[in-house]
Amino acid sequence: MRTYLEFEKPIAELDGRIQDLKQMDTQSGVNVAEEIERLEAKADQLLTDTYGKLSRWQKTLVARHAGRPHFSDYAASLVDDFTPLAGDRSFGEDAAILGGPARFRGRSIMLIGHEKGADTSSRVKHNFGMANPEGYRKAIRLMEMAERFSLPVIMLVDTPGAFPGRGGEERGQAEAIATCTDKSLSLGAPVISVIVGEGGSGGAVALAAANKILMLEHSIYSVISPEGCASILWKDAAGKGDNKAPDAAEAMRVSAQDLLELGVIDGIIHEPLGGAHRDLTQMIERLGDAVETAIEELEGMSPAGLRKHRRDKFLAIGRNGLT
């Protein structure tokens, strides 16, 4: 059953009427095909109009939609022979970050990314995509393996941020994130990162210090969540009083379109009409095409050239004169 967001209520009502008519057509034999066709056209137009003018806060809600494809969906459909590897060889396993070697359209690659989970039990298992230090240290181990075997590294980012719990802090959360970011920047293999949902704080940057950074059309990427920003600037607790999170999202310019304009990312992958959650197969195919193009653009570059490309890219951010 499809889950609708608050701003999609008019679309939900139309879809409900269409389903009722289809059921009537099946059970009673009454021909309502013309009315169904008319309503479907109206629903498609309403979907086009709605998603053509989403606010930054609405994009945040779409980026968090429970039905969006997660890492496990991409691992199942985008690549072949994915072999997940566990543990950081220092403390333990962290299910919030998954990764391992795989075959992508005839190439051997290393696939790494955040996994949020798809239902209550799997979300708890994967800690809602919020990694502990051992998750980032596992990512470092996998990146080093990729460099050893000259494998392109594909990283899928989808996290509200690193886990802020006491245990993580005791085990060196900040150091693990910093070291993972440094490893991404210094790797002698091609690195392509795609923000597929939320890209929150240093927990996202650690897997996004890449040669090519791409974002899905309705994903977000920011130094802090809109709610976190609102709580700091306006002392606003989400759900209590005046919620300033939508204002924070506008001020922070969290959308893919904003970040492309600012030079933070390199490209946008367009989503199916109504968001990635409406057509997972098409979304995964489009992401695959974009990743393949990015790999081809980096092929033939030496390890030193890849490092220089990455360094020049990040040093150029913010130098385009925009305010």
Using brief descriptors, characterize the structure shown.
2-enoyl-CoA Hydratase, Chain A, domain 1; 14 helices; seven-stranded mixed beta sheet; alpha/beta; 323 residues; globular
Order of helices and strands: HHHHEEHHEHHEHEEHHHEHH
Number of strand segments? 7
Largest sheet: 7 strands, mixed
Instruction: Quickly name the level 1 CATH class of the largest domain.
Output: Alpha Beta
Strand content: 5-15%
Quaternary organisation: single chain
CATH superfamily of the largest domain: 2-enoyl-CoA Hydratase, Chain A, domain 1
Query: Averaging pLDDT over every residue, what do you get?
Result: 92
> How far apart are the termini?
43 Å
Radius of gyration, CA atoms, in whole angstroms: 21 Å
Shape: globular
Tell me which CATH architecture of the largest domain applies here.
Alpha-Beta Complex
In terms of per-residue confidence, which ranges show pLDDT below 50 for 5 or more consecutive residues? Answer: none
Structural class: alpha/beta
The total of helices stands at 14
CATH topology of the largest domain: 2-enoyl-CoA Hydratase, Chain A, domain 1
Helix content class: 40-55%
